[in-house]
Amino acid sequence: MFLQRRTPQLPTPEEALKGRPTPEFTVPSTHTVLGNPLEGPYPEGLEVADFALGCFWGAERKFWQTDGVWTTLAGYQGGYTENPAYEEVCSGLTGHTEAVRVVFDPKTVSYAELLKLFWESHDPTQGFRQGNDVGTQYRSAIYTHSPAQAAAVAASRDAYQKVLTAAGHSTITTEILPAESRTFWPAEGYHQQYLDKNPAGYCGIGGTGVSCPIGVAPAEG
C-alpha cells in the first residue's frame, strides 16, 4: 500500500517525487481546540518550534494540551517534494517526516519545557520507526528556528542520552537540523486536530518511561 519500501530508506533529491507548485487542498483557518489561526503570520512575541515524534495525530495533541501553546499544525517536513500529499509521504518517496508546528508563548512555556515533552513522549532511539509504525515518515526530528533553539536541543539531547543509556536504551537517532530551507508543508485538513475530531482514533505515541532532565547542566563527555 502507498508503494511502501520493504526496508525504510530516505530517497535522494533525484529519487524524490517532484511534487507541485501549489497545494492540492486547503488548510482550515482555525484550530478546533485552541480557537486560534493555524497558519501565520502569528502575533508578536510568540515563537515557533517544529517537532517530529511519530504519527502526528497523537503528537499534535500532546502539544495542544500544554499551557502556553497558542496553536499547533500537523504537517510534513525534512524532505524534498513540494506541496506533498499524505499518500506520497507514506510512500517514503518524498523524504518528509510527519511533523507538528508548535506556536507558543515563551512567557508561559519555555522551549526547554517543550523539549522535555518531546523527548518523553516518544522513543527517540528507533530510527525510521516509532513503535509499530515503520517508515521514514515516522522518524524523530527537531528543526530549529534559531541558534538558541539549536543550543537548547543539543544540550537536552546530550543530557537525555545519559539517562537513556543508564536505563539500558540505545543511541538517540533524532534528526536535528535548521528549519531554514526545510519547508514545513501543512497536512490535509482531516489531519489537523485529528484526535479532537476523532477522540477514539489511533494514537501511536508512547515514550520510554525515562524522565528527561531538562534544566540540568549539559552532559559531560
From TrEMBL:
Q: Which reaction does it catalyse?
A: L-methionyl-[protein] + [thioredoxin]-disulfide + H2O = L-methionyl-(S)-S-oxide-[protein] + [thioredoxin]-dithiol; [thioredoxin]-disulfide + L-methionine + H2O = L-methionine (S)-S-oxide + [thioredoxin]-dithiol
Q: Which InterPro entries match?
A: Met_Sox_Rdtase_MsrA_dom (IPR002569), Met_Sox_Rdtase_MsrA_sf (IPR036509), MsrA_MetSO_reductase (IPR050162)
EC number, UniProt record:
1.8.4.11
Query: Which catalytic residues are annotated?
Result: 55
Q: Where is this region: Disordered?
A: 1-22
Q: Where are the transmembrane segments?
A: none
Query: Which segments constitute the Peptide methionine sulphoxide reductase MsrA domain?
Result: 50-203
Output the Gene3D superfamilies linked to this UniProt entry.
Peptide methionine sulphoxide reductase MsrA
Name the Pfam families for this protein: PMSR
UniProt KW keywords: Oxidoreductase
**Top EC group:** oxidoreductase
Q: Which NCBIfam families match?
A: msrA
Report the sequence similarity comment from the record.
Belongs to the MsrA Met sulfoxide reductase family.
Its function, per the record, reads: Has an important function as a repair enzyme for proteins that have been inactivated by oxidation. Catalyzes the reversible oxidation-reduction of methionine sulfoxide in proteins to methionine.
HAMAP family linked: MsrA (MF_01401)
Name listed for the protein in its UniProt record: Peptide methionine sulfoxide reductase MsrA
**Can you name the source organism?**
Streptomyces sanglieri
